Amino acid sequence: xxxxxxxxxxxxxxxxxxxxxxxxxxxxxxxxxxxxxxxxxxxxxxxxxxxxxxxxxxxxxxxxxxxxxxxxxxxxxxxxxxxxxxxxxxxxxxxxxxxxxxxxxxxxxxxxxxxxxxxxxxxxxxxxxxxxxxxxxxxxxxxxxxxxxxxxxxxxxxxxxxxxxxxxxxxxxxxxxxxxxxxxxxxxxxxxxxxxxxxxxxxxxxxxxxxxxxxxxxxxxxxxxxxxxxxxxxxx
Length: 236
Fold this sequence. Notes:
By secondary structure, the chain is mainly alpha-helical. The protein is built from twelve helices and three strands. It has helices at residues 3-9, 13-16, 22-34, 46-53, 57-69, 88-107, 117-131, 135-151, 156-175, 180-183, 187-198, 202-229, and strands spanning 43-44, 73-76, 80-83.
């Protein structure tokens, strides 16, 4: 973790407000981890982060505990706290969890029309990023798509569950070199799912989504396995 990273992190103090809590600190760190500021394997310094965010050591340690329970961080005895490096089996399990939750959300939607503004914005965001050749941004837009899809359930608990699952998924993406092959095939498929929901056909949307997530599971798990098994790759 460099001085520049902690200097940029100091800009996040405003997000904590005057009533700083461990949950808010955890929100900031979760976002930074998901965005790749702290890649898998990075050691998180209590002194550097506490100084950058202006929070106490106890508050920071509680935030670390929260993120450790979410499987984003790992504590190594006598070494400190590190951003977790996923095992290949973790990546596969994340996808199985996504399929269970996301397909259930679509299956459980009530009568149309559905509130699709967030989903539409995520699809447009991904297509614009692809047009600009910004494939890391396409990855982010794809995460937004799935987050907005789950939000259609109107359940704070489901949103919280998927926030952690999708943040874990980003840990896998950060270790795979070229994001384009992972995300480009799903731009059109995101729009197909959106179009099915606009038409009020949640059965078709669920069928498209299930096939999509099965393909993604195979593609991402294989790419991640190659990344961590290659010379110089990291294993967790």
